[in-house]
Amino acid sequence: MSIRPYTGNTEGNHPTERPGTSRFVEYMEFLFGVKSLGIYANRKMRGSQDLSVHATWRAVDLTGKGTAKQNANSRKAMVEFLFAHRDTLGIEEIHAYDGVGCPIPNLTKYGAGYRCDRDAWKAWTPQRNGGTPGGNWTHIEIDAAHANSVALIEKSFMLIFG
Predict the structure, then answer these.
(1) What are the pLDDT tens digits along the chain (162 aa)?
(2) What whole-number distance in Å separates Cα of residue 123 and Cα of residue 149?
(3) Do the Cβ atoms of 103 and 20 come closer than 8 Å?
(4) Short-list 130, 119, 81, 122, CA closest to 101
């Protein structure tokens, strides 16, 4: 895979729907039986004065359904899939708050995060983490090209599944 630039919140608030993001969420719900906890929110990041990527319409929080074990199994499969296809799907960041699906062994309750500008996972610590240690959901950020285009999302999944 390759190192790619991380967009983060540089675009600022984007209060209108990005149709590619919505279509991406539909694929995740269908493929992994997860549900969306939300996409757009014009707010600051937890513990920061910086704008959340949720305000750009490029971030989504997804959780599994059913029991805790079913939730974890769904998210594990989803995170492993997203990491395997990160370039094709334009994945910029993944937050595994409880470490589910992350390839780093023996994580603490602070979980880990993947980012495209280092093309690697990083274990989180009490001082540096995603703001919700042990959370039972996964935060995903996609690039603007995918967020803006249903056609690109469709093409990306066709490349994966043929």
Answers:
(1) 789 999 999 999 998 999 999 999 999 999 999 999 999 988 878 777 789 999 999 999 999 998 889 999 999 999 999 999 999 999 999 999 999 999 999 888 889 999 999 999 999 988 887 778 788 999 999 999 999 999 999 999 999 999
(2) 32
(3) no
(4) 81
